[in-house]
């Protein structure tokens, strides 16, 4: 039986609990009350059926957590108000004042900003940035006080991957916890907990929500005690809870996650292959292409590919911007994971030093293929390339 599809369509729905409703209800309430004070005192909010107050837990959100835990092969998932709330909770739960962190250079940019504006000045963190491709560099970066490795695969900009099993083996040997951002592939195409990662993060604002209408995040792990801390300390004290309605919309997003991911992949593959053949395109960065320099690792650890890619045109930065402005079906904006295609130059406004560190063109173009279909997207891209 395909357990992923069961998780999306049935896990935790429990018809008989909710008057045989095929869709679990939105528990739009802030508290739960008891007849006897003693019953109230004995509630353990970490348990499946025990609730007190909405900042601790909510039954609708917990349906979502059970589905995502099943999908990621974790024992427990904790949902947050955003991907960043989830990410910073993971950092705060695993690090303490003075901790050293190892972080990939091309990680989701706001994480670096959190480390440089809060982690380093307020919490006395030290951070070593690594490429993620060089195992020796990673092992050499480990210090006595290294508490956490922050990973992402494939990662933003040029969609490089890390060898997840090899990196987690190094981390385990030195007692360092690992965190990975699995947003790009979703649990449908990659299961990092099975490859030794301690904590998986998803922003549900992207593919899981899938309709560009919610902000949310989630952490998943096999470590029950760590997840109890995430919920009872990190989420409860920082207060980054998701609203019940957003939680419910994320459940609705999950119903079609597998279907959408396969379609996104199919469309993106057609677009990447077309762009790779165009003489106006210098480089295409997409994990689905046979020409990807890490194709062997990708084959080993990914079951599929996202619909995100980057390209470099054989032209100036100005021409790159002209090109994306010529695209009619690709909205110019950040984020991704919804039904609508998007384009932008992600490093265009970064300082020179950062662009150098990342080792990409300032005119790098990121394309997100939505659900408009390959025929429409290719027609749009072809027309925009012709105008160059
Ligand atoms: C958008 C994004 C995040 C942040 O998620 P929010 O829900 O916006 O806080 C983290 N990681 C990746 C890869 C993202 O694309």
TrEMBL record:
Protein known as: homocysteine desulfhydrase
CDD domains hit by this protein: CGS_like
Residues recorded with modification N6-(pyridoxal phosphate)lysine: 206
GO molecular function annotations of the record: homocysteine desulfhydrase activity; methionine gamma-lyase activity; pyridoxal phosphate binding; transaminase activity
Family indicated by similarity: Belongs to the trans-sulfuration enzymes family.
Catalytic reactions of this protein: L-homocysteine + H2O = 2-oxobutanoate + hydrogen sulfide + NH4(+) + H(+); L-methionine + H2O = methanethiol + 2-oxobutanoate + NH4(+)
Cellular component terms per the entry's GO annotation: cytoplasm
Cofactor(s) needed for function: pyridoxal 5'-phosphate
Pfam families: Cys_Met_Meta_PP (PF01053)
Segments traversing the membrane: none
Annotated keywords: Aminotransferase, Pyridoxal phosphate, Transferase
Native organism: Candidatus Blautia faecigallinarum
GO biological process terms on file: transsulfuration
EC number: 4.4.1.2
Entry superkingdom: Bacteria
